[in-house]
Amino acid sequence: MSPVLRVENLSVGMRAGGGAYVPVLENLTFDLDAGQTIALVGESGCGKSITALALMRLLPDGFQVTSGSVFLEGEDILKLRPKRMRAIRGNSMSMIFQEPMSALNPVYTIGDQLSEVLRLHRGMSARDALREAVELLRAVQIPAPEKRVAAYPHELSGGMRQRVMIAMALACKPKLIIADEPTTALDVTVQAQIFDLLARLQSETNTAIILITHDLGAVSELANKTAVLYAGRCVENGATDEIVRLPQHPYTKGLLSCVPHLSLGCASNREWEDLPEIPGVVPSLGMRGAECAFLKRCAFATDVCANQPQPPLAGRNEEGHLVSCWRQGELSI
Question: Taking the complete model, does pTM exceed 0.85, yes or no?
Answer without folding.
Answer: yes
